[in-house]
Amino acid sequence: MATTSVSADIATKINVTARKGDSFYLQATLTNEDDTVFDLTDYETISLKITNSNGSLIKEFKNTGTASADTEIVKNNKISKDNTLGTITIDVPAITSLQNTDYINMNLLVGTYDYTLKINSSTDVHTVMYGKFKSID
């Protein structure tokens, strides 16, 4: 009897390296299996979550929320998308100043973390990228 398997996993494993304290920019173009552009129109929420080895949230960059609600961990409105080009852009300045407080956005300790980049619609959730997120000096 032959063994067969099916995978519904569309995620791509990509390891990312960023310099501690620097600005961070990453752009990804999503495509379908036939290399056509993946339409992002129905995906309202996009998030990049960085976690430690215990699964605790270290940083989260999102396309939703307001900058005034930023914390040391959650960074709102740092991700944008182009529905027709299928691109997701993560653009994080080194420092955000809000209400006389400076937030250092990429203040991850030097080390290696796990991350996932997910897109969400009202009915679907897709992990599109995952892997190791390495912070260097």
Task: Report what the structure shows.
- This protein is mostly beta strands and 137 residues long.
- It is built from no helices and twelve strands.
- It has strands spanning 12-13, 16-19, 24-29, 45-51, 57-62, 74-75, 79-82, 87-92, 95-98, 101-104, 111-120, 125-136.
- Strands 1, 2, 4, 5, 6, 11 and 12 form a seven-stranded mixed sheet that branches.
- A hairpin with a 5-residue loop joins strand 4 and strand 5 (57-62).
- The N and C termini lie far apart (53 Å).
Descriptive tags:
mainly beta, seven-stranded mixed beta sheet, three-stranded antiparallel beta sheet
Outline of this structure?
The chain is mainly beta and 137 residues long.
Topology diagram in text:
Elements: E1 12-13, E2 16-19, E3 24-29, E4 45-51, E5 57-62, E6 74-75, E7 79-82, E8 87-92, E9 95-98, E10 101-104, E11 111-120, E12 125-136
Spans of at least 5 consecutive residues whose pLDDT stays below 50 are none
Q: What level of helicity do the residues show?
A: under 10%
- The proportion of strand residues reads over 45%
* Oligomeric state, counting identical vs distinct chains: single chain
Please, what is the average pLDDT? 89
Shape: globular
Radius of gyration: 16 Å
Q: Report the end-to-end length measured between terminal Cα atoms.
A: 53 Å
Q: Give the helix/strand class.
A: mainly beta
Count of individual beta strands: 12
Biggest beta sheet attributes:
7 strands, mixed
Number of helices: 0
Q: How do the SSEs run, as a string of H and E? A: EEEEEEEEEEEE
